[in-house]
Specification:
Layout (H helix, E strand, L loop, with lengths): L2 E12 L2 E12 L3 E5 L6 H8 L7 E6 L2 E3 L5 H4 L2 E4 L10 H11 L4 H14 L15 H14 L4 E5 L7 H18 L2 E5 L3 H7 L2 E6 L2 E7 H7 L1 H6 L2
Parallel strand pairs: 3-8, 3-9, 6-7, 7-8
Antiparallel strand pairs: 1-2, 1-4, 4-5, 9-10
Helix pairs in contact: 3-4, 3-5, 4-5
The protein binds adenosine-5'-triphosphate.
Length: about 240
Amino acid sequence: MGDVLRVRGVRVVRAGRAILDGIDLHLAAGERLGLAGPNGSGKTTLLKVLALLLTPTEGEREVFGVPVSRTVPTELRRRMAVVFQDPPLLTGSVLANIYLPLRIRGLGRNKAREEAYAWLERFGLEVFAGRSARSLSGGERARLALARALALRPEVLFLDEPFAAVDVTSRAPLKATLREILRDQGTSLLLISHDYRDLEDLTERTVVLVRGRVLAAGPTATLRREHPLVRELFP
Ligand SMILES: Nc1ncnc2c1ncn2[C@@H]1O[C@H](COP(=O)(O)OP(=O)(O)OP(=O)(O)O)[C@@H](O)[C@H]1O
């Protein structure tokens, strides 16, 4: 299988400073990749470049085998989903947060409702279906954002610190659910996390950024053991 994402020589300059500098990276179909590094190392910026939300100052991007320039076709964006740490939710009900995006994608009323409920159940949110999404706790919001992103069946899922608001005991089952869905749907993942445990649980390969450059890359399971500088960052 080919790469779903490939970037070469990505450079992003802001306020006269290169916040990404010469990044080469690829993500294979169905691969789960971690992105780690200290605060300000450029992780979120790189995620935005890869998710076609930000045009780099320099560099080439290829998405699903298609070279991407400044204007990004909507069809390409629709094959991806992004969840940030504090995801914006719709003001309506919890159910509507999944139902409406499915309707917009063209599903009929009954089918959209049925699928939306199934996704809520999968993430343990069915009891909240009729409640206002704004009334959810931080951890519940995080689960809803994941359910909503996956309901759209993206080929690539980008997650930026998705478990930050999720308590430690809820994390393991949530990660297990996520792993199962990614496997079933054959979805590729790019995960940013400060918790190496999350990277070990969910990714096969990790890229470590420091000051906008790749410090190290390799199998998540062995990278820390084999790279003293990575071990320093993730003791
Ligand atoms: N629009 C901008 N203008 C100026 N500087 C920016 C801009 N966007 C990001 N930066 C800077 O670029 C650097 C990288 O930011 P980025 O958010 O990508 O880092 P990060 O690795 O995701 O950090 P964290 O772990 O803290 O979330 C930071 O120093 C940030 O302040």
